[in-house]
Every structure is written in structure tokens, then in C-alpha cells.
Amino acid sequence: MHLKSIKSSRIKDRLYLHFSDGLIIPFYIDDYVLLKLKKGQDVDQPLFLQLLNKSVGYLLKNYALRQLGLSPKTKKIISQKLSFYLNTALVRYKLPSSLIDKNSLISEVISYLETNQLLNESAYVDYFIKKNSNKPRRYLEYNLKTNGIDISSYSHLLPQADSETDNVKSIILKKYSRLDLNNYQDKNKIMAALYRKGFSLSAIKVAIDGLLKSR
């Protein structure tokens, strides 16, 4: 097999390597220069494996940086996203997955992000809580734990009882204003719906009692 042609891309740091067997892989331009690749050169198996893994590593790193540009991520979240993206990229570019060390490539990207302090757990927790400020504490705790966060370190950032009660009141007034809190069935319907959303029963009861007293 040989390197049939090298074509530019609309993406400024990318080239496309075209091989004689029809395979086309996206490639980081700096790696192209460092490896001194030339049109028409023969490509043996070791070199091809090197080019293939550098190509995938480049794609993964670019994807990770784009994701972090959108919002903070934890190590667990970005690892899951990289794994999903990798499988998508392999299909998109028709790359031979059996020749790629997926776990090693993902680990290298994670290591790069950690070395450059691009994975900020505190920033992610702050972002997630602010984004879901109207969600109950139980919902926040569950999702943060699912994403590998030790809640004990951030409990002070989670909504306290008064805040959760205010959220419950707001939801009742907005979504359940047509129901009668004095009616047993309506009241139970509201409580069940709010509990399913993740609000604690104590916060729901306090909120309902507060609304009844204010009428």
C-alpha cells in the first residue's frame, strides 16, 4: 500500500491522507510535518498502524476540547462521550476498528486533559447546579453521583430546605393552580407528581401548608 495523495481540508489544522486501497483518514497537519510524509511513499503495516492511531487520537482530542468548550465535564462524563464519539467516528470514516487500541487512545486524551487542568470537577458541579436550579435536591444528588461526584464535598452548594420549598410552591402555582389543595384527591395527586420529580415529602408538605395558610 502507498500514500496516493494528500489533500487539504476546510478545517485549518487538518489534512486528508488518501491511500491506494481507497481508505481516507483525517490527519493532524503537525503530525504530517513531523513524520515527513510524502505523496506516493510506501506505507508498511507498522507505519499504517501509527498513522491510523494518530488520526483517531487527533479526532478524539479535538472532540474533547469542543465538548469542554461547551460546558465543564467530569472525567467520567468526558470518557463516556469519547467512547461514544469514537465508535461514531470509526463508522463515519470507515476505519478498521480492529486495528485501533480504543482504551489506550481514550486514556491518552484523558491524561492530556488532566495534565492541562481542563477537567474541573468544582466547575462542573457549579455549572450543573445552576443549570438545574429549579430541580429538587434529590434529583441533583442522584445525577451528580451518577457522574462520579462525591456529594459530601459539595453539599453546601445544593439547595437547602427553604429553597426547595420555594421551588415546590412555584411549581404548584404554575402547573397545578386549577387543582384544589383543600381537596384530598387533588392534594394527593399534586404530592405524588412532585415526589416523582424528586422533591422530598417534607418540602412538599411544608409548601402546601404554606400555600393553604396564605389563602
**CATH fold name of the largest domain, please?**
Arc Repressor Mutant, subunit A
- Which range does the strand content fall in? 5-15%
CATH superfamily of the largest domain: Winged helix-like DNA-binding domain superfamily/Winged helix DNA-binding domain
The CATH class of the largest domain is: Mainly Alpha
Please mark out the parts with pLDDT under 50 across 5 or more consecutive residues, or reply none.
none
Distinct helical segment count: 9
Which strand order do you get reading across the main beta sheet?
A: 1-2-3
Radius of gyration: 26 Å
Biggest pleated-sheet summary: 3 strands, antiparallel
How many β strands by DSSP? 3
Listing every helix as H and every strand as E from the N terminus to the C terminus, the arrangement reads: EEEHHHHHHHHH
Anisotropy-based shape: elongated
CATH architecture of the largest domain: Orthogonal Bundle
The total domain count is 3
Kindly name the structural category.
mainly alpha
Helix amount: 55-70%
Q: Which whole number gives the mean pLDDT? A: 89
Distance between the termini: 82 Å
Structure commentary:
The protein contains 9 helices and 3 strands. The chain has helices at residues 29-34, 45-70, 75-92, 102-115, 121-131, 137-146, 161-175, 184-196, 201-213, and strands spanning 3-8, 14-19, 24-28. 59% of the residues lie in helices and 8% in strands. A 3-stranded antiparallel sheet has the order 1-2-3. The chain is mostly helical. The chain has 3 domains: 3-115, Winged helix-like DNA-binding domain superfamily/Winged helix DNA-binding domain (Arc Repressor Mutant, subunit A), CATH 1.10.10; 121-157, no CATH class; 161-213, no CATH class. The radius of gyration is 26 Å and the shape is elongated. 19% of the residues are buried.
